[in-house]
């Protein structure tokens, strides 16, 4: 017996949160699952029903709705963003001098996690057998900082910010050292750390850092430092259906709930 069309659409397209549990959590979006229901995949039908609406976009975040797509495919996009979109990150740190209290390996690890502003499409993957990088596969950076006493500090001051110079080492202290013709090719790229206020180490007078770093192209599947996003997540689009008329105190409680949902999801979703 063929299933009613409206019931099939509800089963295929919605995860239903009931009073005592969640229904339809497994995808059934494949042909032949429902007798008498044409569920074959068609490119033109998919193009007609699928769309992407940008909800919010700025320098650090992109939020969008994918409409007309199965949750499994949305999750595939999420996993691709995390693991398979290439970026540039620090792979090798040549530490020539480190007299700070941070061990070399800990400092190298912190440097590797600093996000680097560079277009990976302009670089090639570096051959693991190559000992030295070239202008087509490597970005060279340098961190050279020495802490000294501030000769103009007040005599009665105990604030390190007044007593010392360069005692806080930030990612903004990392400088780009062009290789080959990179200075001409990437003249307008402003290669360097994405954020200049990431604290890397604290120094005291006499302590210094002298490090040269090589950035290479990689993907998050190899190491999390290559992941282009801090996190990527998806959530199901809510559809709220009232099964009966709500009046009085219950209606007021419902309004409070709706206000909260609007605050979380936005007007376009509630």
TrEMBL record:
<dbReference type="InterPro" id="IPR050518">
    <property type="entry name" value="Rpo3/RPB3_RNA_Pol_subunit"/>
</dbReference>
<feature type="domain" description="DNA-directed RNA polymerase RpoA/D/Rpb3-type">
    <location>
        <begin position="61"/>
        <end position="264"/>
    </location>
</feature>
<dbReference type="GO" id="GO:0003677">
    <property type="term" value="F:DNA binding"/>
</dbReference>
<dbReference type="InterPro" id="IPR036603">
    <property type="entry name" value="RBP11-like"/>
</dbReference>
<dbReference type="InterPro" id="IPR001514">
    <property type="entry name" value="DNA-dir_RNA_pol_30-40kDasu_CS"/>
</dbReference>
<keyword id="KW-0804">Transcription</keyword>
<comment type="similarity">
    <text>Belongs to the archaeal Rpo3/eukaryotic RPB3 RNA polymerase subunit family.</text>
</comment>
<keyword id="KW-0240">DNA-directed RNA polymerase</keyword>
<dbReference type="GO" id="GO:0046983">
    <property type="term" value="F:protein dimerization activity"/>
</dbReference>
<dbReference type="InterPro" id="IPR036643">
    <property type="entry name" value="RNApol_insert_sf"/>
</dbReference>
<keyword id="KW-0539">Nucleus</keyword>
<dbReference type="GO" id="GO:0005666">
    <property type="term" value="C:RNA polymerase III complex"/>
</dbReference>
<dbReference type="GO" id="GO:0003899">
    <property type="term" value="F:DNA-directed RNA polymerase activity"/>
</dbReference>
<dbReference type="GO" id="GO:0006351">
    <property type="term" value="P:DNA-templated transcription"/>
</dbReference>
<dbReference type="InterPro" id="IPR033901">
    <property type="entry name" value="RNAPI/III_AC40"/>
</dbReference>
<protein>
    <recommendedName>
        <fullName>DNA-directed RNA polymerases I and III subunit RPAC1</fullName>
    </recommendedName>
</protein>
<dbReference type="GO" id="GO:0005736">
    <property type="term" value="C:RNA polymerase I complex"/>
</dbReference>
<dbReference type="Pfam" id="PF01000">
    <property type="entry name" value="RNA_pol_A_bac"/>
</dbReference>
<dbReference type="InterPro" id="IPR011262">
    <property type="entry name" value="DNA-dir_RNA_pol_insert"/>
</dbReference>
<dbReference type="InterPro" id="IPR011263">
    <property type="entry name" value="DNA-dir_RNA_pol_RpoA/D/Rpb3"/>
</dbReference>
